[in-house]
Amino acid sequence: MTSDAATATSTTRTTPPPEGPAPDQEPPALGLGTSLPPADARAKTEGTFPYAADLWAEGLLWAAVLRSPHPHARILSIDTTAAAGMPGVRAVVTHEDIPGDGSYGRRVVDRPVFASELVRHHGEAIAAVAADHPDTARLAAAAIAVEYEVLEPVTDPEKAFAAEPLHPDGNLIRHIPLRYGDPDTVGEVIVEGLYRIGRQDPAPIGAEAGLAVPRPDGGVELYTASTDPHTDRDLAAACFGLDPERVKVVVTGVPGATGDREDPGFQIPLGLLALRTGCPVKLAATREESFLGHAHRHPTLLRYRHHADAEGRLVKVEAQILLDAGAYADSSSESLAAAVAFACGPYVVPHAFIEGWAVRTNNPPSGHVRGEGAMQVCAAYEGQMDKLAAKLGIDPVELRLRNALSTGDILPTSQTVTCPAPVAELLGELRDFPLPALPKDSPEDDWLLPGGPEGAGEPGAVRRGVGYALGMVHMLGAEGTDEVSTATVRVHDGVATVICAAVETGQGFTTLARQIVQETLGVEEVHVAAVDTDQPPAGPATHGRHTWVSGGAIERAAKMVRTQLLQPLAHKFGMSTELLQIADGKITSYDGVLSTTVTEAMDGKELWATAQCRPHPTEPLDESGQGDAFVGLAFCAVRAVVDVDIELGSVRVVEMAVAQDVGRILNPSQLATRIEAGVTQGIGAALTENLRTARGLIRHPDLTGYALPTSLDAPDIRIVKLIEERDVVAPFGAKPASAAPVVTSPAAVASAVRAATGRPVNRLPIRPQAAVAATPKA
Questions:
Q1: CA-CA-CA-CA dihedral for 752, 754, 757, 760, to nearest 10
Q2: Residue 433 sits in the same domain as residue 499
Q3: In what helix (H) or strand (E) does residue 358 lie, and over which residues does it extend?
Q4: Omega within 30 of 0 (cis) for the link into 765
Q5: What is the pLDDT of residues 695-752, one digit of tens each?
Q6: How many CB atoms sit inside 10 A of residue 96's CB?
Q7: What is the CATH number of the domain that holds 376?
Q8: Residue 742, phi then psi, degrees to nearest 5
Q9: Fewer CB under 10 Å: which end of the chain, C or N?
Q10: Are the beta carbons of 299 and 324 closer than 8 angstroms?
Q11: Which pairing describes strands 73-79 and 189-197: parallel, antiparallel, or unpaired?
Q12: What is the pLDDT of residue 590?
């Protein structure tokens, strides 16, 4: 890492690193800590990289899925006669074609592949069709006659407690009552707040697609953009009535994922149709189908009461957190655990009493989206900190510094923070970083005003606001999740191959794998094998776990190969392998007596080793919300600068400054890109992204009705400080990079709008009416 890697940089107008050095340039540095470019960068840039939507097979059929137009209805009959009789239609499948009860689920098996008796959300799958042309498949799906008895939907999560059960398992998915400290404690100063967080869609940039190919043994192969192939295989096999060994999942190119590609609901109908027809079947979902089918961030209602002393030190936090899970459980239990555990934020709170619920409704399904649970509560507790600072007349930064968490402090779950927690240092770096210059009141700069060209009423109506936020996320799984990954490293003829079922979702894992092997073995050419379920499992690509668990497995395997390589040399020269080092493709001894190349030492041999990595175990939260539920924590501080038209309520984010606890920088360029992407996703949650519903019906399920931030909405993103305090229990000491800024950025933007307008801003995304100033302009 160069000395300026942790200083302020602008990441909005950067030039990607070249694929390779020019003929007259030195080759790029290798190993950890360098900005090694991705091996597939050129193919993705030129559009030749094969994604799931690009797949093809001889004799290919096309699939289409019929989805419910109602959020809640009883199915009286399903007539597939007309569809099955259409020319070109090869198969129609419904719930009757699925063995057993036809349900699946990663955490809770409660979601039917096809609805049978009841429809529980808008867009729920009813049937699927395979035909020889995609238009024929869509027409056939539309020809399926379904008779519904429309029922009153339950769309208010607060009413779900008393409503008739929407599912055999009931409406309450989980309740966590966290109790920590003395409930009778009262602070000298009390502030209260009610906060609402909207339904953010992960909006994957590529089509959700897949291909199913039947096998001669009666099994099936699924080619999909899966982020957890082994779990997807097991879920699919159960729905097919097959042993897992007869189902193979092959991971195709994943065009980015923030949790949205974890739902196997798109691929199970494919496999059923392939098994029924004996032909390859492909499905490429439309954008509308994606909005209807996959999981979204949990809409959340939060009530808070903060107690503090006269100096602004927190005494007690009380909160009620209600997550709307939609129709099925999915990851709601885990999201609720994160929300409750982090409800007080990265602050020292001696007394905390939090009630958390996740409930079923007839709203669109909710599930894992980056920073789930933690993002919603961050927006609320940081709003409370702003209120408390205003009531006490204390600078908001100073108030946060007085309460900042540090290593050795105890969370409200009674878990001691053993990892580095430089929260105060992160915030201090932002406070001292220069603010951007104020805009000029000149016609040529009008495009910089809120609302775009000619969007602002007049420059005099624009107010600037500066806001701060602190956030935290957990690493790996939680509450007793068995985290384990297996990797194999093989070296032959100067080329290393890594075999690991960790999926590259855009987080840069394959690049990291190459860097680990390069640093450990001194081999420049490293290939990472394609992922499928014939390999040992590596688990899902969430919570930065592949950097830790899969990267740790690769490192251990590479070190075992290193020992195999060095032992003959050490024995020959009468020294231990610890006295030999590998650097730049050369092996040297501490005294300089031995000097050879890795290629010469290999002498044509093939060396390989397989290793596992399993972090220390965690435990579920108990009936009082107590327990060591998390392997580790990562922290982030964000300062937002916004311009607000206080008459129209339009908001322009001018700059986002970030200071982050990263443990160790493994790839500076890749890390900066991850932080920039996380901040941008957070801005979307703060200002524009809200999948709106009306009585359970998704309104405008497309990218015209759902406003994603574009490159024109992205502000200057300044990486002010990256603190490298290695977590000693983590391989390489690194921490996850992208979830923390996603969690923290929306709260910072809301804080800045509060500062500009004087309004409470208690809802995300921020509505224009909430950004109109409380008092008229002077």
A1: 160
A2: no
A3: strand 351-359
A4: yes
A5: 999 998 988 889 998 888 889 999 999 999 998 888 888 888 889 999 999 999 999 9
A6: 11
A7: 3.30.365.10
A8: -60, -45
A9: C
A10: yes
A11: unpaired
A12: 79
Cross-strand pairs, 632: 475
Per the listing, tokens 């959300």 go with 121
DSSP secondary structure of 290-357:
HHHHS-BPPPEEEEEEEEE-TTS-EEEEEEEEEEE-TTS-TTHHHHHHHHHHTTT-SB--SEEEEEEE
466: in domain: yes
Contact 185, 292 (CB under 8 A): no
**How far apart (Å, rounded) are the C-alpha atoms in residues 700 and 690?**
11
Are 121 and 231 members of one domain? yes
CA-closest candidate to residue 300, choices 378, 376, 385, 202: 376
**Distance separating alpha carbons of residues 649 and 463, to the nearest angstrom:** 11
Q: Which residues contact 535 (CB under 8 A, 6 or more apart)?
A: 486, 499, 500, 501, 529
Neighbours of 216 (CB within 10 A): 5
Q: Which helix (H) or strand (E) covers residue 450, if one does?
A: none
Give 743: exposed, middle or buried? Use CB within 10 Å, 0-12, 13-18, 19+.
Answer: buried
Query: For residue 200, is it within any domain?
Result: no
* Domain annotation covers residue 170: no
Domain that holds residue 242: 53-152+209-254+261-292
Average pLDDT score over the chain: 89
Can you tell me the mean pLDDT for 173-202? 96
Tokens 């210059």 sit at which residue? Answer: 437
Q: Quick check: 369 and 333 in contact, CB under 8 A?
A: no
Q: What is the pLDDT of residue 446?
A: 57
Is 75 in contact with 126 (CB distance < 8 Å)?
yes
Contact status, residue 502 vs residue 485, Cβ threshold 8 Å: yes
Distances (CA, A) of 145 to 82, 127, 247: 8, 11, 32
- Tell whether 605 is covered by a domain: yes
* Beta pairing, strands 651-661 & 693-694: unpaired
Task: Report yes or no: 209 and 285 within 8 Å, Cβ to Cβ.
Answer: yes
Mean pLDDT along residues 492-506: 90
Considering the domain architecture, whether residues 404 and 539 belong to the same structural domain is answered as: no
Last residue of a domain, one of 613, 642, 660: 613
